[in-house]
Amino acid sequence: MAPVNVTVTGAAGQIGYALLFRIASGHLLGPDTQVSLRLLEIPQAVKAAEGTAMELDDCAFPLLSGIEITDDPKKAFDGVNVALLVGARPRTKGMERGDLLEANGGIFKPQGEAINAGAASDVRVLVVGNPANTNALIAAAHAPDVPRERFTAMTRLDHNRALSQLASKVGCSITDIKKMTIWGNHSATQYPDLFNAEVNGQSAAAVVNDEAWLADTYIPTVAKRGAAIIEARGASSAASAANAALNHIHDWVNGTAEGDWTSMAIPSDGSYGVPEGLISSFPVTCSGGEYSIVQGLEINEFSRARIDASVAELVEERDAVQALGLI
Ligand code: NAD
Ligand code: LMR
Questions:
Q1: Rounded to whole angstroms, how far apart are CA atoms 279 and 150?
Q2: Which ligand is nearest to the CA of 135?
Q3: Is the CB of 157 under 6 A from ligand 1?
Q4: Under 8 Å CB-to-CB from 269, ≥6 apart: which residues?
Q5: Where are the alpha helices (DSSP H) in the chain?
Q6: Which pLDDT score, from 0 to 100, does residue 312 have?
Q7: Which DSSP string do the residues of 263-308 spell out, in sequence order?
Q8: CA of 236 to the centre of ligand 2 (A)
Q9: pLDDT tens for each residue of 254-311
Q10: What average pLDDT score do residues 149-161 get?
Q11: If exposure means fewest CB atoms within 10 Å of the residue's CB, which of 93, 104, 118, 238 is most exposed?
Q12: Given the CA of residue 237, which atom of ligand 2 is nearest to it?
């Protein structure tokens, strides 16, 4: 079988460094799938990406069939099957929100165009670079020939954080928890839902039985974990973000476990009152290489208000990039 072409943007960055070795050792697509890596970087970082490629060579990974390094999106995405869009423009001092969206538009617009021009017909795109949901919206808008549903953004790190915080509160193992959902944006407004999650088959909210802890401790701890890591490490999460990116693509391609689901930010089809087209996080099951939104969940008043708040933020971001002519 031909190797799967995997493109990683921002390959010389810290997530790139945590990601590439695990892709090459089979953690993205499984132990039987050969991968060919394309590393996209800006010209100033191509040399650093070359250094990473030298180290990849030195691992002699049996599954790694080739590595190409480029600063040209057209070359990077030609024939791509899995595109991991990690490189983004971080917010720096004095930068307004509009400046950040505009700077990222300058990255995700040409990348969307290059995916449109050259990607393989089965391409799957995961946007990790922040603001991830809206960057995915920009890329998708510039790839009109690629089915919309192939553009996704990452909330799997939030999902994993939500599992870990819950396990530590109730003293259970991660595998005792099923049906966790992150709703909305990958931002501080995201909503980790314990009303539909289960601990050993029982409602997680009922097991916790402490709405004040849920509202005042659990939700903010999960939602602001990224900021807490930046504060502690002096840099944003890297290994855990890379791990979540592997989980996201692995489940999309290979399927979610029976009786469970995961969280992915995907183009809304209008489910749960989320405006169609917004890239928002939902509970999804994956099977046969496709995801579908879990339907029919009960959304109580507590959840409704929080989902609506996060979706309102996504609408604002969409309107801002629309006003800038980026979508
Ligand atoms: P980093 O600064 O270490 O690396 C980013 C890399 O992207 C740099 O090497 C840079 O040269 C490269 N880059 C910039 N513009 C590019 C372009 N146009 N094409 C190709 N490469 C380009 O950052 P990092 O720690 O690796 O984080 C990357 C992004 O991921 C950030 O936006 C960060 O906020 C985001 N992030 C998202 C999540 C999530 O859960 N969605 C979690 C952690 C980090
Ligand atoms: C995270 O959730 O760890 C990151 O998105 C934080 C950031 O701003 O890079």
A1: 11
A2: 1
A3: yes
A4: 276, 293
A5: 14-24, 46-59, 73-77, 97-118, 132-141, 156-170, 204-208, 211-213, 219-223, 225-233, 239-254, 301-323
A6: 98
A7: EEEEE--SGGGPPTT-EEEEEEEEETTEEEEPP-----HHHHHHHH
A8: 6
A9: 999 999 999 999 999 999 999 999 999 999 999 999 999 999 999 999 999 999 999 9
A10: 98
A11: 93
A12: 3
Return the ligand number nearest the Cα of 241: 1
Which residue pairs from 249-254 have beta carbons closer than 8 angstroms and sit at least 24 positions apart in sequence? Answer: 249/28, 249/29, 249/82, 249/84, 249/124, 249/126, 250/27, 250/28, 250/29, 250/30, 251/286, 252/124, 252/152, 252/286, 252/289, 252/291, 253/29, 253/82, 253/124, 253/286, 253/289, 254/29, 254/30, 254/286
**Cβ(37)–Cβ(69) under 8 Å?**
no
> How would you list the strands of the sheet with 4-9, edge to edge?
64-70, 35-40, 4-9, 82-85, 124-127, 151-153, 262-267, 279-287, 290-293
How far, CA to CA in Å, does 36 sit from each of 24, 39, 73, 307?
8, 10, 16, 39
By annotation, the residues acting in catalysis are: 186
How many angstroms separate the Cα of 68 from the Cα of each of 4, 36, 198, 254?
A: 13, 8, 44, 26
Is residue 136 within 8 A of residue 125, CB to CB? The reply is yes
**Residue 203, token pair as written in the block:** 């409602």
Q: Which two tokens stand for residue 186?
A: 């990958």
Mutate which of 8, 38, 41 to test ligand 1's pocket (most atoms within 8 Å of Cβ)?
Answer: 41
Q: Specify which residues 193 forms β-bridges with.
A: 181
Residues 6+ apart with CB under 8 A from 152: 124, 125, 126, 127, 136, 248, 252, 264, 265, 266, 279
CA distances from residue 216 to 240, 281, 292 in whole angstroms, order as listed: 24, 22, 31
The pTM of the whole model exceeds 0.90? yes
Do the Cβ atoms of 28 and 22 come closer than 8 Å?
Answer: yes
> With a 6 A CB cut-off, is 238 part of the ligand 2 pocket?
no
Tokens standing for residue 74: 């057209």
